[in-house]
Model the fold of this input.
Amino acid sequence: AADLYDLLRDSSRVNEYNEECALVRDIENLGQDTKVTWASSKSYFPFKARDFVTRVHNTVMNDGTFVIMSQSQDMAYKPPEGGDFVRTEVLLSG
Done:
């Protein structure tokens, strides 16, 4: 479980488990266990690629349970590559 937790919280390794993710960037560090990330999906004609700005929190509970939660952030973040994306909202995931 610890190996999976480490994999999922490392943005640079997202392509190891999500082939639909085209790009991902950590854009703000909010503390040791919380960050804001920007990610985009691949584009499939005739649809534009989707992009997401999410706050992600990682923690290990006192009983050893690993928790990763994410929720969309309402930010006017512009994609680093200047691509043409449709902003998508993640209501809550974990």
